[in-house]
Amino acid sequence: MPRQENIVLDVASLFPEGKIIVWQLEYPSWIAKVYGAEEIPSLLYDGRGVPATFNWQQYIEENCHPDDAERVKNEITDAVGNSKSYTSEFRTWDKERKIWRYWFVFGKIKSNESEGGYTIFGGLQDIGERRRYQRALVEKHLTDEQMQVMLDAMPMPCCRWDEKYRLIDCNGAALGFFGFEGKKEFIRHFDDLSPEYQPNGKLSSELLREKVKLAYIMGLQSFAWLHNKQDGEPLPVEITLVRVKHDKSYVVVAYISDMRGASPTRTETRAADDLARVMLDAAPLCCNFWDANYNNIGCNREAANLFGLSGKQEYLDRFSELSPEYQPDGRLSSESAREKIKLAFETGYQRFEWTHRKLSGEPVPAEITLVRVKYGDGCVVAGYTRDLRELKAALSEIRKAEEELRAARNAAEDSARAKSDFLADMSREIRAPMNAILDMTRPVRQDEITAKRQPLEPLNTLLVGDNDSALASIQTYFNLLHCSVVSTIYGMETFDFLSENLLNHQNKKIELVVMDLKNIETDGVLAFQKLESLFGDDMPYVLFAVSDYDDDKLRSVLGGGRWGVFRRPVTLSSLYGGIANVIHPEEEN
User: Fold this and answer.
1) Which CATH architecture has domain 3-127?
2) According to the model, what pLDDT value does residue 426 have?
3) What does pTM read for this prediction?
């Protein structure tokens, strides 16, 4: 058997009562297959043991009870695409046994994307045994007299409704139970014998009409109900509605059981339910409940209060109007809500933000928490709605304050930046003269090296270099040292032209040559060599201005002659130290 059919049989094994017929339906083609239906081979099975294939819609129209056929087709159409599962009950005519057979049909709905439709896998179960007491009543044609005798003979309160859902009769036990003397008075005041709302929050009049309608369709309904006497005393009861054949039509008979004398366990359970309902209504948080078919089936009072509605029923009836057509993310509200509820049923928990709105159009931002909870024999999803309007307003104020603080900070940073730029400009303007003043006022370093040196005498100095401003700075420092600058030479070409005329310039012997050239290791060495050739034994001291240099390399080229270096940038201290080291080299220990 294919894997899909094995899945169906696994589902069918969950229903041990009665014989299960495995069933598969393709929608919208309505093509059905069944397995294991040997007892009705003429309709559902061929003679070779192969599953029968037939049109389910046509089969329902030809074999289903007239009261059930249209409903069964509509229920399948409504279920497909809207839920994960499908269940229903219907009757079919057994041609061989000449009886109506009662069936319970169930299935799991799956989307068939390859063919653009849906497939329902499930089964059919004969539930005739559970309907035998109903069939006895349905198949018995009761006259008015017989019906009245039957009702009056009942020891429990009984009432009768017609096909238009109107209360038309009752028995004596019902009159005594509610404290009436005549049937006309009882029927006229029957609506006053229930509170306006039942404990589940639904209007009593609408809910009772709905139950009677279902009893006409399904044949049987049983549920708890809260009546009250004429003096307002509450009467908790259990009502059983049974559809009964009467002449050429049907009526629904209600059997009322007084629950005031119920067992302690049942009474305690009801008391617990009532307490839970009171607590739910007292909760300051909006709460509602969703069934497996995505129907909003209940709420608390705060749900109506949040949206300014008159009561719970208006909230349930107009819930679809309490959301805009589209959510802020661009999705349809109806589709997004269905998806969130579906995920909550599957995972047990969902939390997300949602935009509701009041009937006036005012938006209501909210945080929704969906929780799957056990309810009866199945589960429902409880939805809790937290109003975020105050929180959103507070966050808006915080963001506004942050923007104002950010603007103030930016303004302060711009002011600090302008101040820093101004101080930097002023510092550049005053740094050079201030350095000169500081150098003049700073005492000569009193370290061990200075202690071994003799004071410098004023020197006749020749300046050689490539940078006008650098030579000007050095000349300024020589003036501060009271040293004569014989001449300033710019570049090697000028040096070649003037060097021979500088030997006895103004009858002043050149004692020191200071060179500030771009490349000390090339131009400086060349200049040093030319000075040696010009001055011979009267070679002056030579001092090179450098940023960085290789001492070993210079010594390998210049030898151990009368030369030295001082560091850029030039200061009075560095120049003085360089001259002192050349003229008075440090004695080695």
Assistant:
1) 2-Layer Sandwich (3.30)
2) 73
3) 0.32
